[in-house]
């Protein structure tokens, strides 16, 4: 009975938190500005690396590799940058302490806050693939669109989990903006977005494997070449595991930092 | 500048994209040598300067808006444009530190080769490019006064300049229709001048070092003139509408 009640309240907190985050976002960001962001960010980031590739190694395969990688990486703007900053935004608005004072379960509360960014990430990746196809000539004739759609959804979910983990670290810091910026761009280097991770120094490669995007870029390229869901299951499972692990670690960090801050009375004073 | 030193961690967001993009560029150029490697190293330096200057300009007023001090700043008898120009200049100086840091990392960490044949010319081109980026920051900042989305606009303006200025590749690779936009940007000419000064074999856009520098100088004057005019118009509008805190 108590568990069912908790589940019901948890779901209600999740829904109200998601609705609140949506309203809060568009209270300061106009829909036009949001659309500009969704359409412009993937265009220019992809353009930078595609033209760089055209200059250095202008083979069609290389350009397709980079265009698809960058289409996936664009999800980082919403799932990493926006989500990691959730706790910091509460600090800036002065609402973190009242929020922490509520008895609401933190898990559905912050998961709800991140929900719109999951959809935002999916939309941004979709726009990225439109650019990859129609501007940079990626051949989608063999693509398995069902598998690709699943890859996009799982990547956006898993990366949002990773963003939530960074946001929990941000609870301990004065602002999560720093760490959010680092992980917003570092994916271009570590996640096989622009080149295979085997080109990275050996000691750096394990870091790539704990970021869900590494699996997302590989899976997306395979789906573009025609792999079906069954063939992609192993790599998608790895991505799901890293995403879930990020959420669990993030939740534990959040609870730990919250207790520490409440005990010291320093929630907004780091 | 004092604001920066009170919380210097803010240099990280300004510099991380140029650092990462330079590292990716150097991995792309791993088998290249001579003037090709120049593109990655100098492009990274230019991006470092632009990243810091843009964020400096973008947040020059956004922080005041967030802290509730924008109305007080606007209420002083000083013209807002001078206040912003001062902040933008200090960001430019920090941008130079960013550029040097990126160059050092590229040269030491990636063993990139950068033999500068004309050090004086290179320094001149670097300083003028920095001034032009600062002027471009002032120009953009005028529009940031009228919006609460300065942070979003700042993020959105970083990449287009990297692409359009051909920071790491020749602008000839870009679509032909985009060339007028590229040529209207001082950094396009500035980076070309720096490459000329660094390598005797570099031909680039084909206008030569001194013409490149002349265009950078002229563009900087134009950016400043338009930026000052825009600030006067925008400041007047903000005062007349009395809606500064509502944007």
What is the subunit arrangement here?
heterodimer
Give the proportion of residues in helices of chain B: over 70%
The secondary-structure class of chain B comes to mainly alpha
Number of strand segments of chain B: 0
Contiguous low-pLDDT stretches of chain B (5 residues minimum) are none
Query: Whole-Å distance between the termini of chain B?
Result: 27 Å
- As a whole number of angstroms, the C-alpha radius of gyration of chain A is 19 Å
Largest sheet of chain A: none
Characterization of the model:
By secondary structure, chain A is mostly helical. Chain A has one domain (2-264). Chain A is 80% helix and 0% strand. Chain A has helices at 2-28, 31-56, 60-73, 76-84, 86-93, 96-101, 106-134, 145-172, 177-190, 205-209, 212-224, 229-264. In chain A, helix 7 (106-134) crosses helix 8. Chain A is elongated and about 60 Å long. The mean pLDDT of chain A is 87. Chain B has one domain (2-246). Helix content of chain B is 74%, strand content 0%. Chain B contains ten helices and no strands. Chain B has helices at residues 2-6, 11-28, 35-67, 70-75, 80-109, 119-144, 150-164, 179-183, 186-198, 209-241. In chain B, helix 3 (35-67) packs antiparallel against helix 7. The model of chain B has no long low-confidence stretch (mean pLDDT 80). Chains A and B meet through helix 2 and helix 9 of A and helix 2, helix 3 and helix 7 of B.
In short:
The complex is a heterodimer of chains A (270) and B (247). Chain A has 270 residues and is mainly alpha-helical.
What order do the helices and strands come in, and which of them pair?
The complex is a heterodimer of chains A (270) and B (247).
Chain A: H1 2-28, H2 31-56, H3 60-73, H4 76-84, H5 86-93, H6 96-101, H7 106-134, H8 145-172, H9 177-190, H10 205-209, H11 212-224, H12 229-264
Chain B: H1 2-6, H2 11-28, H3 35-67, H4 70-75, H5 80-109, H6 119-144, H7 150-164, H8 179-183, H9 186-198, H10 209-241
Helix pairs in contact in B: 2-3, 2-5, 3-5, 3-6, 3-7, 3-9, 5-6, 6-9, 6-10, 9-10
């Amino acid at each position: 009975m108590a568990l069912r009640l908790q589940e019901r309240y948890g779901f209600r907190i999740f829904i109200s938190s998601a609705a609140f985050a949506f309203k809060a976002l568009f209270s300061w960001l106009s829909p036009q500005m949001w659309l500009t962001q969704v359409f412009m960010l993937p265009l220019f980031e992809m353009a930078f690396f595609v033209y760089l590739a055209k200059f250095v190694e202008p083979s069609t395969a290389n350009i397709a590799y980079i265009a698809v990688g960058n289409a996936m990486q664009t999800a980082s703007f919403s799932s990493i940058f926006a989500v990691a900053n959730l706790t910091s935004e509460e600090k800036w608005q002065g609402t973190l302490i009242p929020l922490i004072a509520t008895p609401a379960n933190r898990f559905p509360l912050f998961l709800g806050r991140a929900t719109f960014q999951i959809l935002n990430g999916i939309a941004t990746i979709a726009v990225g693939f439109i650019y990859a196809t129609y501007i940079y000539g990626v051949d989608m004739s063999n693509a398995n669109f069902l598998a690709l759609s699943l890859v996009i959804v799982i990547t956006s979910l898993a990366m949002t989990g990773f963003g939530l983990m960074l946001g929990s670290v941000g609870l301990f810091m004065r602002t999560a903006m720093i760490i959010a910026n680092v992980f917003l761009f570092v994916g271009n280097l570590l996640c096989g977005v622009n080149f295979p991770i085997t080109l990275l120094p050996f000691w750096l490669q394990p870091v790539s494997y704990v970021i869900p995007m590494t699996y997302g870029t590989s899976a997306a390229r395979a789906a573009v070449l025609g792999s079906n869901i069954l063939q992609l299951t192993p790599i998608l499972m790895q991505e799901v595991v890293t995403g879930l692990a990020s959420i669990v670690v993030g939740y534990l960090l959040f609870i730990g930092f919250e207790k520490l801050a409440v005990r010291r009375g320093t929630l907004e004073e780091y | 500048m004092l604001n920066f030193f009170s919380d210097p961690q803010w240099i990280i967001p300004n510099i991380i994209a140029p650092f990462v993009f330079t590292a990716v560029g150097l991995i792309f150029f791993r088998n290249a040598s001579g003037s090709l490697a120049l593109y990655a190293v100098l492009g990274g330096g230019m991006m470092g300067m632009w990243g810091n200057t843009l964020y400096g300009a973008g947040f020059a007023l956004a922080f005041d808006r967030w802290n509730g001090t924008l109305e007080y700043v606007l209420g002083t008898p000083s013209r807002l444009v001078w206040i912003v120009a001062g902040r933008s200049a200090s960001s430019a100086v920090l941008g130079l530190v960013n550029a040097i840091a990126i160059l050092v990392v590229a040269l030491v960490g990636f063993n990139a080769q950068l033999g500068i044949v004309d050090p004086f010319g290179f320094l001149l081109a670097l300083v003028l490019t920095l001034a032009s980026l600062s002027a471009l920051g002032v120009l953009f900042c005028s529009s940031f006064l009228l919006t609460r989305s300065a942070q979003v606009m700042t993020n959105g303006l970083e990449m287009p300049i990297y692409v359009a200025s051909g920071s790491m590749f020749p602008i000839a690779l870009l679509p032909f229709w985009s060339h007028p936009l590229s040529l209207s940007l001082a950094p396009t000419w500035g980076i070309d001048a720096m490459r000329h000064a660094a390598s005797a074999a570099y031909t680039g856009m084909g206008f030569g070092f001194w013409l490149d520098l002349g265009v950078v100088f002229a563009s900087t004057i134009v950016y400043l003139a338009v930026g000052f005019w825009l600030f006067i118009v925008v400041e007047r509008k903000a005062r007349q509408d009395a809606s500064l805190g509502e944007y």
